# Entry
Amino acid sequence: MTDLQVQEPVVSENGQSHRDVASTAPATTAPPARAATRASPPRTTWSGRSVIRLIELAAIGVLGFLTLDFVFRATGALNVGFAGLTFTVGSFLASPFVGIFKTTPASQGNLLVWTDILAIGVYAAAALVLSFAAAKVAGSLVRKPA
# Structure
């Protein structure tokens, strides 16, 4: 069943008259206009994203030096130049874990420093925990009403 709407003749200001118009479209009302504005979340002065990036950057540097230290020692690199810097920084970063695992000799006097591998795991886990904690704190700061 369809509704039939009839429009009465209307005379406009310029003198023209409109005829009756029949429509078979169902009679509907227009939905109410919605407000186009949206409430934005409160902004914080502390950016958790930048802290997480800083943690990731520090982790990449630490893990990079420890990985290169392990590889350079395993391949028998000389303690000069960049390899010497890598040995110094890698030894410093791995020093809290010295004595947990035994350093084993590889072929031709090269060393497998398992302390570096342990330090890589510990520092990677610490970076993950710190990143998740910073994300959690940043998330709770964003939700607070200003």
Remarks:
- Residues 5 and 31 are 19 Å apart (CA to CA).
- The mean pLDDT is 79.
- The chain is about 50% helix and 5% strand.
